[in-house]
Amino acid sequence: MAAGLQVFGQPASTDVARVLTCLFEKNLEFELIRTDTFKKSHKLPEFIKLRDPTGQVTFKHGDKTIVESRAICRYLCTHFPDDGNKTLYGTGALERASIEQWLQAEAQSFDAPSSELVFQLAFAPHLKDVYPDERRIEEDERKLKAMIGVYEDILSKHKYLAGDEFTLADLSHLPNSHYIVNSGERGRKLFTSKKHVAKWYEKIADRDSWKQVIKMQREHPGTFE
Hints:
The protein has ten helices and four strands. By secondary structure, the chain is of the alpha+beta class.
């Protein structure tokens, strides 16, 4: 049984959502402490400001503090291997190596264009005096389409990115993909235009762990103004 797990941040943050999904997959009890870095009047705990000036997500377990969402997910899987989903980070060196390759691909090649599209397509239309940048949208769409083309080929051979089991490789893609798919027809087409990618996204978005995160986001949407 895990004890003393704390997550600081807003469920609306993609980084926080990634960590929450992992916690739910592992069936771990935790405390979510909502911090709003968008409000200048909100005072962040000192240990967050020292470790992570952006304060998007911070995780504490006893005297350990981790601030990068993928690192937090790795920590949870390795520190609590027998809780919840036992195959989330693979069950052997070969499986873990494959998952790691996808985690790196997501962080290095998928995250940048998809994060920009999340802002431009999902958040910018709702912000005061902020307007979508068509040039940037087109450039990031081009980059993301190239990545999704690679995913389509892989997913034509396997149910999930690292094989036939849902793993951190898939989980890590969920937050940004969700915002893009639900931003409107333009974003949705990036995923639905590819048969195997569309089927994959439908499966991972239908997991109970992710549905719990969506519920938290709807109950406490956070502020972005």
